TrEMBL record:
Protein name, entry field: Sugar ABC transporter ATP-binding protein
CDD domains listed in its UniProt record: ABC_Carb_Monos_I (cd03216), ABC_Carb_Monos_II (cd03215)
PROSITE patterns per UniProt: ABC_TRANSPORTER_1, ABC_TRANSPORTER_2
InterPro entries tied to this protein: AAA+_ATPase, ABC_carbohydrate_import_ATPase, ABC_transporter-like_ATP-bd, ABC_transporter-like_CS, P-loop_NTPase
UniProt source species: Paenirhodobacter populi
Keyword Acetylation in annotation: no
Length: 503
């Protein structure tokens, strides 16, 4: 697409990138409605919005992955003649995706220099490559010779950012870079970003978390229904409540579970002597209707125990459900048959089938219960789909639409509907609100709360301390494969949780 002239707009030295009256339509659907915003040089500019607000479409336009229907992209005062990936990267705009683009069996140095490997006499100049990489990685804490597959989550994100920089990036778009990071990892990433900002790098930082925007960003823009709802050139002038109101178009009532004391109740679930990789659990009981939070550092045992209960992590131990003792399930099918349901933390990989319809996804895990002599009872399936499509509040014209047409938050609701359709006695949800906006997050927590009121026991695995404070009756903090501390009642605070996890 050809971008028109500047139309009288006067460039200023501090504006490196201007998105000028950009619109994007998909047939009758208007994904962006004349969005205009300025990104100042050497700043971190936050981008907020609900799922479906237009963030992904705007980022797609800025990175050249999507062609705008109308509007202009102006870089360093010059309107760009083309808007595609090559043109935007040549102009210095690079996108760093949520999942780091890393080749695991290559070294950090080789990954860093992908696309710009030095050549001598028609062959890769390995000596020059290693020397250049060592210089570029100096001060990052990354060993150039380390295999990329062995790098931790924050190092992988750093590597992607540096690769964009040294490929000519002056404006780097970070799409939810803190996903799956611990509090300590996030702090390390933010310190790294501040250092690069001081060297003149400009960031566009996409997040669903107000506290991250307020901590790391200089400016913020909020999208709502494809339009620019507001923002500030000085994020210090804004509060979390003001950001939430801009995101939602209304005041936000945060969910808070009415905590219950389940001490002394006969357990619905009992675990004893669970052993496996990163697991050395002595004992855990969960009462009917109780919501228990699992948290801890990576490898501490929280995630591993949750997956072991569903037959996804090799382990041995005793499991008792409603007075019947068995071993741990050997696979997910055995777990489902026992009344255990599990919602993965990665809905893209193993939470939903994007090309299938919403209804087919909702019905998927409970399919065997409706099979008769090799045939599916379609009437029963339609009833299940209708029930959970409505109960989850999925925003779509109907359950016949494909899941990949939905926003991330609505995809998560479909995944939750799928596992609830199995009619579980124990529900395990791993990072249930990761990557979804603040409004949908409250919806998901309310759905889980309502389920527990029917007597279903729930485990929430989360590194989001605020989520745990609002959603659970009890928190188990894991360390070295076992529960190192249990918090209940008024002891469940953000400060106490963070201190316990890091202790």
């Amino acid at each position: 697409m050809t971008i028109h002239d500047t139309g009288g707009w006067t460039a200023t030295d501090d504006v490196i990138l201007r998105i000028d009256d950009v619109a994007k339509s998909y047939g009758p659907v208007k994904a962006l409605r004349g969005v205009t915003l300025d990104i100042r040089r050497g700043t971190i500019h936050g981008l907020l919005g609900e799922n479906g607000a237009g963030k992904s479409t705007l980022v797609g336009v800025i990175s050249g992955q999507r062609t705008p229907t109308s509007g202009r992209i102006i870089m360093n005062g010059q309107p760009l003649e083309r808007v595609d990936v090559k043109a935007m990267e040549e102009a210095g705009v690079f996108l760093v995706t949520q999942e780091p683009m890393i080749i695991d069996n290559m070294t950090a140095a080789e990954n860093l220099m992908l696309g710009i490997w030095p050549v001598r006499n028609g062959l890769v100049d390995w000596k020059a490559l290693r020397a250049d990489a060592a210089r570029m990685l100096d001060g990052s804490g990354i060993d150039p010779a380390a295999l990329a597959g062995r790098l931790d989550a924050v190092a992988r994100r750093k590597l992607n950012i540096l690769r964009a920089m040294f490929s000519g990036g002056t404006v780097i778009i970070l799409d939810e870079p803190t996903a799956a990071l611990t509090v300590a990892d996030r702090r390390q990433l933010f310190d790294f970003m501040r250092r690069l900002k001081a060297e003149g790098v400009t960031f566009i930082f996409i997040s669903h978390y107000n506290d991250e925007i307020l901590e790391i960003c200089d400016a913020v823009s909020v999208l709502r229904d494809g339009s620019l709802a507001g923002g500030s050139e000085d994020v210090r002038a804004m509060t979390s409540e003001q950001l939430s109101e801009l995101v939602l178009g209304r005041g936000l009532t945060l969910f808070q579970r009415a905590r219950r004391d389940h001490a002394g109740k006969a357990p619905a679930i009992s675990l004893r002597e669970v052993r496996g990789r990163h697991l050395a659990l002595s004992a855990l009981d969960i009462a009917p209707g109780e919501i228990v939070g699992f948290t801890g550092l990576p490898g501490a045992g929280a995630k591993e125990l949750a997956r072991a209960i569903f037959g996804l992590h090799p382990a041995r131990g005793r499991l008792t459900m409603n007075g019947v003792e068995t071993g741990l399930p050997g696979d997910p099918r055995m777990a489902l048959d026992a009344g255990i349901a599990f919602l993965s933390d990665d809905r893209r990989r193993d939470g939903a089938v994007g090309q299938m319809s919403i209804g087919q996804n909702i019905a998927l895990s409970s399919l065997p219960s409706r099979a008769r002599f090799g045939f599916i009872d379609r009437a029963a399936e339609a009833a299940v789909v209708s029930r959970y499509f409505g109960a989850m509040g999925v925003k779509s014209p109907g359950p016949e639409y494909a899941v990949d047409t939905l926003s991330g938050g609505n995809q998560q609701k479909v995944c939750l509907g799928r596992v609830l359709a199995t009619d579980p006695r124990l529900l395990i949800v791993d990072e249930p609100t990761r990557g979804i906006d603040v409004g949908v997050k409250q919806d998901v927590l309310r759905i889980i709360d309502a389920l527990s009121n029917t007597g279903v026991a729930v485990i929430i695995v989360s590194t989001d301390t605020d989520e745990l404070v609002r959603a659970v009756d009890r928190v188990c903090v894991f360390g070295q494969g076992d529960i190192k501390e249990t918090l209940t009642g008024e002891d469940i605070t953000v400060e106490r949780l963070r201190a316990s996890v890091q202790a």
